């Protein structure tokens, strides 16, 4: 309703005012898990990786089933005469979408490169946890 009031939280201001937030999530926070033993780091990475891999597998199967089922139903409806598909219009729209994606990809390239560099630096700083995560992720996909 119109009577409800909401507080807007600016995360940048919040991070400046709360020093613990800066220590944990700030640029110079450093590896958080380095205070744990190597075995603990591997287990932490492995468990989180397994969870992520397992969820990725389940969501991937669900998405593939939904998309495949949708295409199957569309084909059945098309062959039965319930649906007429204007393939020239579909092709035109797909080409238009490809052009827009290329434009956006060219604009986003510096941001993507920065993200890749930050991710690479994080993995280098936390190599033990990262390797545990990758192993757990692969096990999660296989489960």
UniProtKB/TrEMBL annotation:
Keywords recorded for this protein, A-Z: Autophagy, Membrane, Mitochondrion, Mitochondrion outer membrane, Transmembrane, Transmembrane helix
| Superkingdom of the source species | Eukaryota
Q: Which Pfam families match?
A: FUN14
Report any one BP term from Gene Ontology.
autophagy of mitochondrion
Its cellular-component GO annotations read: mitochondrial outer membrane
What's its membrane topology? Multi-pass membrane protein
Broad class of the protein's primary localization? mitochondrion
Localisation:
Mitochondrion outer membrane
User: Could you confirm whether the keyword Isomerase appears in this record?
Assistant: no
Q: What family name appears in the similarity comment?
A: Belongs to the FUN14 family.
> What is this protein's record name?
FUND1 protein
Annotated source species: Herpetotheres cachinnans
By which gene is this protein encoded?
Answer: Fundc1
């Amino acid at each position: 309703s119109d009577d409800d009031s909401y507080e807007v939280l600016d995360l940048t201001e919040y991070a400046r005012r709360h020093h613990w937030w800066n220590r944990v999530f700030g640029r110079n926070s450093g590896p958080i898990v380095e205070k744990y033993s190597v075995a603990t780091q591997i287990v932490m990475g492995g468990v989180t990786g397994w969870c992520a891999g397992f969820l990725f597998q389940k969501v991937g199967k669900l998405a593939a089933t939904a998309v495949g089922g949708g295409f199957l139903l569309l084909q059945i409806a098309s062959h039965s005469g319930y649906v007429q598909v204007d393939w020239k219009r579909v092709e035109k729209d797909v080409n238009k979408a490809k052009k827009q994606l290329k434009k956006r990809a060219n604009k986003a390239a510096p941001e993507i490169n920065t993200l890749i560099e930050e991710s690479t630096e994080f993995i280098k700083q936390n190599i033990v946890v990262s390797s545990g995560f990758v192993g757990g992720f692969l096990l999660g996909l296989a489960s």
